[in-house]
Amino acid sequence: MAVSQDTPISRRLSHIKHIIIVCSGKGGVGKSSVATQLALSLYTSSPNVRVGILDIDLTGPSIPRMLGVDGHGVHQSSDGWVPVYADASDARLACMSVGFLLKKKSDSVVWRGPKKNAMIRQFLGDVRWGELDYLVIDTPPGTSDEHLSLLEHLSPARDRISAVIVTTPQAVALIDAMKCLSFTRAVNLPVLGIVENMSGYVCPCCGEVSNVFSTGGGQEMARKEGVPFLGALPVDTELVALLDAGEAMRGEGSGSEIPDGEFGLVKRYQGTPSARLFGNVVNVWEDLPPRS
Ligand SMILES: Nc1ncnc2c1ncn2[C@@H]1O[C@H](COP(=O)(O)OP(=O)(O)OP(=O)(O)O)[C@@H](O)[C@H]1O
Ligand code: SF4
């Protein structure tokens, strides 16, 4: 849908090529982890690619911690809020989250719909995102006010938005993922594909795979619904440690910034089926039918 209005949001959005909304039907299935990993994979896919990650999980912002930029502050410039750059060296990975605006990490955000809507509008209109190849947006679980506000504000970029749905393989998560898929259909939001997270546990000692939460449910749902299956991520204790320690932006255990292509999470999955998952997101994008 082309919108001719010239607004602060439409001006910012006109500099963003692709917008990927990461959503899930259910909480705790790994949506923020997938959004972080996706942003890092896109970032490392080429030395010139510019990526933004926007956390609109307003009541549970976790992206700053996962990217290791917890406690950083955003500041105002004459051209709006300057996002936090997770890569100090070349400012190609911009991050914005309500987490940067809280006085204390433990502060809770208790906002009603209108205030959440105003915050999302500010994130899109007031943040100086600059030129971006990809903006990855981490959303709250379910299909809430935030999703509706987001889509309304993103309407000037309607032809450049797609969703990635994250689920775990259990039946209860799949039912909620199905609701999420129905929502995308109701609002005419193209789906890049489904990610099955926590799909099997690989024993770090012997490599034996145990299907803790069963496996293949996300893949089966994708097949039945005619949506691309992007791939599966196993339950991985080292992934948790990297995300919890904010090591996603650093080499494993190095404790300091290291060059492009060697980020903790990306490095961890290099050459594995999970790495292909994130490559798939980019490939599937090219195959999407034209959008109205
Ligand atoms: N593949 C995985 N292996 C092991 N642990 C994981 C995996 N994916 C996510 N986790 C862990 O599960 C927890 C929840 O993940 P995450 O915060 O990404 O989920 P979410 O769906 O965004 O949650 P919320 O509903 O709070 O937004 C985190 O502690 C994360 O480290
Ligand atoms: S899968 Fe094998 S090595 Fe791993 S915990 Fe079980 S028995 Fe031990």
UniProtKB/TrEMBL annotation:
Gene3D superfamilies documented for this protein: P-loop containing nucleotide triphosphate hydrolases
MF annotations from Gene Ontology: 4 iron, 4 sulfur cluster binding; ATP binding; ATP-dependent FeS chaperone activity; metal ion binding
GO cellular component, one term: cytosol
Protein's GO biological process: iron-sulfur cluster assembly
Residues the entry annotates as binding ATP: 25-32
Pfam family, one: ParA
Signal peptide annotation: none
Top-level taxonomic group: Eukaryota
Positions of transmembrane segments: none
Main location: cytoplasm
Subcellular location, record wording: Cytoplasm
Swiss-Prot/TrEMBL keywords: 4Fe-4S, ATP-binding, Cytoplasm, Iron, Iron-sulfur, Metal-binding, Nucleotide-binding
Record-listed [4Fe-4S] cluster binding positions: 203, 206
Protein family (similarity comment): Belongs to the Mrp/NBP35 ATP-binding proteins family. NUBP2/CFD1 subfamily.
Record's function text: Component of the cytosolic iron-sulfur (Fe/S) protein assembly (CIA) machinery. Required for maturation of extramitochondrial Fe-S proteins. The NBP35-CFD1 heterotetramer forms a Fe-S scaffold complex, mediating the de novo assembly of an Fe-S cluster and its transfer to target apoproteins.
Protein name from the UniProt record: MRP-like protein
Gene source species: Lactarius akahatsu
Lineage: Eukaryota, Fungi, Dikarya, Basidiomycota, Agaricomycotina
